[in-house]
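Schema walkthrough. Field components (list of strings):
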Amino acid sequence: MAKRKPANTESRVRTTVKAPMTTGNSLAALRSAAKGCRNCELWKDATQTVFGEGPARARVLVVGEQPGNEEDLQGRPFVGSAGKLFDKAIAELGLDRSAMYVTNAVKHFRFEMRGKFRLHRSPASAHVRACHAWLEGELSRIKPDIVVCLGAIAAKAVFGSGFGLMRERGTWQELPGGARGFATVHPSWVLRQRDSAGREQAYRDFVADLELLVESRS
Ligand code: URA
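Field assembly_structure (string):
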């Protein structure tokens, strides 16, 4: 019997990436154009494009990896367990997520079927490249002062492929145009730590990195 290809195989990624086609220059126009993105194959199995959300004039822009199962179903970034942990961390620091623009490096859910479950698969670098024009479009329209990257995939998408997360987490990076940013671990990584002591330590370190946001306000 012929082997069935797993969903979202990299072999189907297009090598030429189309710049976003928009009917206007606004964030709303970009969001609307992203709904029909076909720059890679991930749209075929995903429910919908999960574009960023938050104020168009946000001072802080947060970048994650890609939508998960819950985000894919709801069409909103960081609404599942990773998002809840992020919300908890920023609430602990007295920060307000609704003032931030939250998005992802890749805007479709990449997964494989395991029985009836859709299991997260990390996006390949080709998927990040295919999606990069959308992230650039969000950055150039919102013009945030600060970009926060959650996890290595987001950090490499924003700071470049040479960025080392464990070496450079929690340190300010200069960005073109006068913005600056920093990276920390992905909240899913915190949740994946083996035992409760490991999770607690990873969470405390995550909050400590995010404290740069508090310092940047003073
Ligand atoms: N993980 C991400 O990186 N982004 C989301 O939106 C949800 C989970």
